[in-house]
Amino acid sequence: MTHKHIFARAAVIAALLLVRSTSADVLPDNRADVFYSKYSGGGMDITGYSATARAKITENFAVEANYFIDKVSGASIDVLSQASVIKDERKQKSGTIEYLRDKTTYTASYTSSVERDYISNTAAISLSQDMFGDLTTVTLGFANTQNKVGENNGTANDPNVAWVGHALTRAYSGGVSQIITKNFIAGVNLQVITDAGYLANPYRSIRYLVPVDVNPKGYALGNQVYPDTHTSTAVQVQGKYYLPYRAAVTALYRYYTDTWGVRGNTYELDYTHPIRNRWIFEGRVRYYKQNAANFYSDLFPFADSQNFTARDQNLAALDNTTIGAKVTYAFLPDGWRFFKRGTVTLDVSRIRFNYLDFRNIKDYGLPQYTPGAEPLYNFNANVFQAFVSMYF
Amino acid sequence: MRCANLLLTGTALGALLLSSGCSIQPWVKPYERDRLADPIMAWDRDAISNAYLDHIRESREGSRGATGGAGGGCGCN
Amino acid sequence: MLSTRVLLKRCAMAAIVVASTAFAASGDASGPAPAFTLTTLAGQPSGLSAYKGQVVMVNFWATWCGPCQQEMPLLDQMYKKYKPAGFTLIGVNVDKEAPPVKQLLERKPVSFPVLLDPANQVSKAYHVDEMPSSVIIDRKGQIRYIHRGYKPGDENDYQDRIRQLIRE
Lengths: 392, 77, 168
Hints:
The complex is a heterotrimer of chains A (about 400), B (about 80) and C (about 170).
Chain A (H helix, E strand, L loop, with lengths): L1 H16 L13 E11 L2 E15 L2 E14 L11 E16 L2 E12 L2 E14 L4 E17 L8 E21 L2 E14 L7 E5 L9 E5 L5 E14 L5 E11 L4 E13 L3 E12 L27 E15 L8 E19 L16 E16 L1
Antiparallel strand pairs in A: 1-2, 1-18, 2-3, 3-4, 4-5, 5-6, 6-7, 7-8, 8-9, 9-12, 10-11, 12-13, 13-14, 14-15, 15-16, 16-17, 17-18
Chain B lengths: L1 H18 L14 H4 L9 H12 L19
Chain C lengths: L3 H16 L7 E2 L8 E4 L4 E3 L7 E7 L4 H17 L4 E7 L5 H9 L6 E3 L4 H5 L7 E5 L5 E6 L5 H14 L1
Parallel strand pairs in C: 4-5, 5-6
Antiparallel strand pairs in C: 1-8, 2-3, 2-6, 4-7, 7-8
């Protein structure tokens, strides 16, 4: 339950990202993808299946449809008092239309994400304009998401969902992409996101110190209390450079700040190396670090010590390092019948998560560790993706 | 909210300046865009895969937003 | 929090202004067509002067340009149709290297002459500012029309212009 909510929230942003790769000169080629993904880490196993297809109806008008299904199972670190095994499913459907007129591309999309205790619907629009002899592309976007948050008071196999609140999320984005030289393109993105309503995860709890005779663990659990508004700003700068031989290097930096006191820095470096018309190899390294939200604490001194309290690991001070590799093989490099090209891609990532103020209280406690002195939590996650893409 | 407001006004002003006759000659000609048109120079060669990775990260991190890219390519038409 | 109405109004304003940014369109042109000599894939020299007295369309294309690939078969049809009436189509390829051009033409051959301009001298001389570009030159060697880009249906425009110039 815990992770699904977060996945559903993240889907809002992912939905906006479906309109990300527009170029306002020609609409992209027709394409169909069948996609499989597996995330395992931190006691969670999440398998995803997806199918996407996009096609041009006329030279100026294209449509895209995507279906995604996520299956979550496992025992998470922060499921403390409920049944430890989670099993659930999230289904997401989205449709996008794209219209190209002269140097402008207009996009509209609708995404619906449903799981038994979280429903989320997003409507997004964006506009992309080429200018300065097609050297500059300016993009503006807006997305509106309605979320309905529930809590399953039953079990995984015998659910009893109570709806606990609503939340409204609005994302405003702008981006400029600039061709600097014939080998170098750079860009900057800005995205401001505001949420209002029920913003907490109902399955996570805080903990606060109590005497051992009140609770043998030395702490008691309590409800998280979140502010009912949240505004975040993220700025990303990126560049892609074509090396003297046929390969490309990408570097990006993103700065994030929000009204909850979280500041995050992301650094990523990618290297892409093709071999003729058949193979593309890609390697990536990413480092992310954030400080904790200002109402976060791993262990509060007593009950109701602050107006807002959270112990959600996403709001903790943490860093993570990712190493990833991707291989694309064109099994139909020059097409076959009405297919222009066919590729198969494998992508693997390994992520090391390190929490700086979130402790592993599932595996450690008294008498060996007093509350607040348990080992800090860390884990490794493996992410695997495989997909087949047909261009037609 | 201030940021979004500024962003929109800034872009509108910028575009106004552009359309009111300040004509800059493109320094990378359309026939010099062979490298930029190479698929390895696309920001999102596989949008579904990148969206999935962002999805994973946002569900584990406190940050969100500003990912992705547009533009580049062959600049044809 | 900024009211939705004001925000939407500003979005619309930005969209309209941005969409009205000027760009070069296809249209009539004038001036003498710059002479040039380039080599064919086989290494033979050839140029505009070889087609003196004919209506010539110089089409600038590249292997990496999608719309260029789209119009090639149609240009080929047009070339075969109007050649007997005194029309020639010269495909000037702007790729930096010849092998991809050779490979593409082996898979999808055309009957009109293809000349290579890897140093982009001819592209510069003709002020090519869009890919693809088609420059239509009359029998007297004057540029009469420049077509920028390619969208399905543009071949009708080409044919109209060519027929007009053939009749002159």
